[in-house]
């Protein structure tokens, strides 16, 4: 957004906290940032407020925004289908236009009498364009990508397991995709003793373009990896208390977007106590050597991409919805 000319007054990474325990610890900061956002919106005096993703924060703004007489558009639905369906009623009351990017979300909201706009997933065209512009980056049969996450707390939990796994594959080169905003010294404390592991910053797509397989933390990165056609193992490990709470409230069979969208296990998920060096090594060996498994995953990836492309160019579709609604409250 910054590259498109948006004036970023505060970066979302300064506002994001993962896990129930972490949120509780940082409540004063969260409330301070909510107050800042409200003041900034008032000073800007917009006709429309477009809330993008980030539901833990943005859902605190919707009632306030409507009471201020603002048109509210929410782009990228909160994952209410995963853990808190009751909040649909809150959204229906205060958000007049919801734009969704996952194909099953339209039917989910329809159950509650709420008509939303499915526009397709924006990652499809982003990654297609990257692949066209970087067509010379060919697959390397010896490269495995490591995507341990974007926040220090999740990297600390997952990267050591990924690195210990890498030590069992001396014939492969493992590349860690560094998260923006985290300094090299943080990573060097983990990497120093692993000879077949390197790390690079701001090159995640380049790494995925060349990789034969990947170990990926749960989240959007699992979908990006699939759209690059890279067989993957999904790795997830959280604060123990946060995990136990989440396990009791989340209703889904799967944790990765790939499996959720396809409603079956396309990629292996190693969650919490299952995320061990032994299990990760076993699954990665299968991923690297079992050609029929590789092909099955890639066939499922193609079906996944077809589902996410059904709405055409997602960004253009979303822009049209926003423009028409901002202009006259309509979407067509």
Summarize the structure in words.
The structure is a single chain. With 332 residues, the chain is an alpha/beta fold. It folds into 2 domains: 12-121 and 312-328, Glycogen Phosphorylase B (Rossmann fold, 3-Layer(aba) Sandwich); 126-308, Glycogen Phosphorylase B (Rossmann fold, 3-Layer(aba) Sandwich). It has helices at residues 20-25, 27-44, 55-58, 62-67, 80-83, 87-94, 105-110, 122-133, 152-166, 184-191, 204-210, 220-227, 240-249, 257-262, 277-289, 291-308, 314-328; strands spanning 48-52, 71-75, 97-100, 117-118, 143-147, 173-178, 197-201, 213-217, 232-236, 268-271. The strands form 2 sheets. A 6-stranded parallel β-sheet has the order 7-6-5-8-9-10, sandwiched between helices. A 4-stranded parallel β-sheet has the order 1-2-3-4. Helix 7 links the parallel strand 3 and strand 4. It is globular, with a radius of gyration of 21 Å. The chain starts with 19 loop residues before the first helix and ends with a helix. The mean pLDDT is 88.
Please count the helical segments. 17
The amount of beta strand, in percent, is 5-15%
The CATH level-2 architecture of the largest domain is identified as: 3-Layer(aba) Sandwich
CATH class of the largest domain: Alpha Beta
Fourth-tier CATH superfamily name of the largest domain:
Glycogen Phosphorylase B
Biggest sheet overview: 6 strands, parallel
Task: Provide the gyration radius in Å.
Answer: 21 Å
Number of strands: 10
Poorly predicted parts: none
Shape: globular
Helix content: 40-55%
Pairing-aware structural class of the strands and helices?
Answer: alpha/beta
Distance from first to last alpha carbon: 25 Å
- The overall average pLDDT, rounded, is 88
CATH topology of the largest domain: Rossmann fold
Give the helices and strands as they follow along the chain. HHEHHEHHEHEHEHEHEHEHEHHEHHH
Domain unit count: 2
Q: How would you write the strand order of the largest sheet?
A: 7-6-5-8-9-10
